[in-house]
Amino acid sequence: MARRLLLLGATLGCLLFLPHGNHAKAHSWYPERCCGGQECRKVDKIDFLPSGDMVMHVGWMEVVVPRNFVKQPSQDADAHVCISFATGIFRPVCVFIPGTS
């Protein structure tokens, strides 16, 4: 059972980073330390929680960004997030917001 769960997690992790409509690998401004140009996505929608945390919607994924997470300036007019998939949870590595300084 544990082996099946591990295999499922690895499979889902690989599927997360396959190219799709929002895959933003063409953006050369992503810092290498954030995602190596591979795991960054343009954000479709942002919801704000009463706690001040953000929920970034990227396709079918939801990434919770804590309110005190350091946000970087976006190089275009869109929000972007670089995602890590660990222990079955999507976690932000880097977040880019337009107008952030």
Structural classification: alpha+beta
Number of domains: 1
Oligomer: single chain
> How many β-strands, per DSSP?
7
- The helix fraction, in percent, is 10-25%
Strand line-up across the major sheet: 1-6-7-5
The SSE order reads HHEEEEEEE
Mean pLDDT: 78
**Terminal CA distance:** 47 Å
Please summarize the sheet with the most strands: 4 strands, mixed
Describe the overall structure.
By secondary structure, the protein is α+β, with helices and mostly antiparallel strands. It has one domain. It contains two helices and seven strands; from the N terminus they run ααβββββββ. Strands 1-6-7-5 form a four-stranded mixed β-sheet, with no helix packed on it. A hairpin with a 5-residue loop joins strand 2 (45-48) and strand 3 (54-58). The longest helix has 15 residues, at 2-16. The N and C termini lie far apart (47 Å).
